[in-house]
Amino acid sequence: MVETIKSAETAAAKPVGFEPRIVAFFCNWCTYLAADLAGTSRMKYPPNARVIRVMCSGRLDPQFIMKAFADGADGVLIGGCHPGDCHYQEGNYKCLRRFHLLKRVVKEMGIEDGRFRLEWISASEGDRLRTVMHEMVEQVRALGPLQCGVPAEEEAGR
Amino acid sequence: MKPKVAFYWCAACGGCEEAVVDLAEGILDVVAAVDIVLWPVALDFKKADVEKMEDGSIAAAFINGAVRSTEQAEMAHMLRKKAQVVIAFGACAQLGGIPGLANFSDREGVLKEAYRDAPSVVNPDGAMPATTHKDNGFTVTLPLLYNTVRALHQVIDVDYFVPGCPPTPQMLSDVVQALLKNELPEKGTVLAADSALCMDCPRKDTKPEKLAITAFKRPFEIIIDEEKCLLAQGLLCLGAATRTGCGARCIEGNMPCTGCFGPTSRVRDYGAKALSAVASLAASNDEDEIVKMLANIPDPAGTFYRYSLPVSALQRRKL
């Protein structure tokens, strides 16, 4: 309840009723299980994330992230296993390398840093998942809606 | 009667016209087989001449260049009406190309850079192009620049795509032959092989079994080995993500692939895919070290989306 009131206050300066849409890609072996744990432990966190389960954070094609932003996500969160814990040995390292380069591209496209985040969250860290969800939603809420692509009036002028 | 063909250029550098001229004496076969009804770079036919022609009376229109002004959009729409087949010729028409990099900016930013801020500009009065100008009782006009550069198929319906910056003369003569014999494939086809450049690379055999890059290098920083896989030398060669068909011209010239042939049919966003291929080769598992290594890739968005920003998922920098 406290959370709801707090987020309503932060949203006051932004368009009325703005609820950030977060696309969250969680790996099957760690972060998705952490989300499961958070659920079964009845932890409360904002419902703004649309969780997509992938087998490994290394499965994340940067195209997915670009598409998420292009199709209306206000933020993208990636959750994977801690370094050294990847079920496939090095998938999360591949994700890490791609993330850092992609982060710079995303920034060059005019998308603020706070909208794109990578977190290592293991299966036992339900509370960490809750914290990250809170932080991410509040951060994106403060940034406001993200409008990517070509504006409609520009589209019509052709 | 010989089939009529039109060539037109939108936002382009003239390199695609050069590809036509590079047919050398082969151009005589083309001229013998078709009637060229419009080709601003070489012939004196005007827009009005084409306007008078019946709709659908041109067999094929080859349009190169991206669309970034009202005039280019108007010409594209007109040629679409007059031509039975429209071919997007070259990287700019297919993907947006180099002019598409203007999508990192907008109309105002582009004009300011070109007419005011660039170090080579001398413009003490701060004169800027305007769409209308009155002088001595006369009004002269210029086309309006759009904020966003587009590939041809984002403006008109396009039948075929010929990739490349520029396409090879061979590709052009193949298309003309296919047109004359009425042997064109399914609509929407990119008229080049559908596999990656690495498959046809003359240096393929020197690629290590497992590529791992310890330091990303730029071409001026090293003496480039003429035999060895360029990616294995730490150079940002995008052949792994790029469609083949160019004959590995840059590789033969000892320069890495910059991706002008665009993606294969399985890829939606070329830049993201190329980035994925390159970044995952960084030979480190340590976050700080990875960030440091990747720092030697300056301007990653401009590098990976060099030819394809307007057709990428995001299409442009946020306005």
Give an account of the 3D structure.
- The complex is a heterodimer of chains A (158) and B (319).
- In chain A, helix 2 (31-40) crosses helix 5.
- A four-stranded parallel beta sheet of chain A has the order 2-1-3-4, with helices on both faces.
- Chain A is globular, with a radius of gyration of 16 Å.
- Chain A is built from six helices and four strands; from the N terminus they run H-E-H-E-H-E-H-E-H-H.
- With 158 residues, chain A is an alpha/beta fold.
- In chain A, helix 4 links the parallel strand 3 and strand 4 (116-120).
- Helix content of chain A is 44%, strand content 15%.
- Chain A has a single domain (17-156), classed as Rossmann fold (3-Layer(aba) Sandwich), CATH 3.40.50.
- Chain B has 319 residues and is α/β, with parallel strands linked by helices.
- Helices cover 29% and strands 14% of the residues of chain B.
- Chain B has helices at residues 15-21, 26-33, 47-51, 70-82, 91-95, 107-117, 169-180, 197-200, 249-252, 270-279, 287-294, 300-304, and strands at 4-9, 35-38, 58-64, 67-69, 83-89, 132-135, 138-141, 145-150, 160-162.
- Chain B has a five-stranded parallel beta sheet with strand order 2-1-3-5-9, sandwiched between helices. Chain B has a two-stranded antiparallel ribbon with strand order 4-8. A two-stranded antiparallel sheet of chain B has the order 6-7.
- Chain B is globular.
- The chains are: A alpha/beta (158), B alpha/beta (319).
- Chain A binds chain B through residues 61-63, 65-67, 69-70, 83, 90, 93-94, 96-98, 100-102, 104-105, 108-111, 146-151, 154, 157-158, and chain B through 73, 104, 146-148, 150, 155, 267-269, 271-273, 275-276, 278-282, 284-285, 287, 290-291, 294, 297, 299-302, 304-305, 312-319.
* Count of alpha and pi helical runs of chain A: 6
- Alpha carbon gyration radius of chain A: 16 Å
Helices and strands of chain B, in order, run as EHHEHEEHEHHEEEEHHHHHH
Instruction: Output the CATH class name of chain A.
Output: Alpha Beta
| Strand elements of chain A, count | 4
Largest interface: A-B, 33 and 41 residues
- The outline of chain B comes out as globular
Mean pLDDT of chain B: 95
CATH architecture of the largest domain in chain B: 3-Layer(aba) Sandwich
Oligomer classification: heterodimer
Give the overall average pLDDT of chain A: 90
Domain count of chain A: the total is 1
State the end-to-end distance of chain A. Answer: 49 Å
Through-space gap between termini of chain B: 50 Å
Largest pleated sheet of chain A:
4 strands, parallel
**Helix-strand pattern of chain A:** HEHEHEHEHH
Q: Return the domain count of chain B.
A: 3
How does the overall form of chain A come out from the CA principal axes? globular
Structural class of chain B: alpha/beta
Quickly give the structural class of chain A: alpha/beta
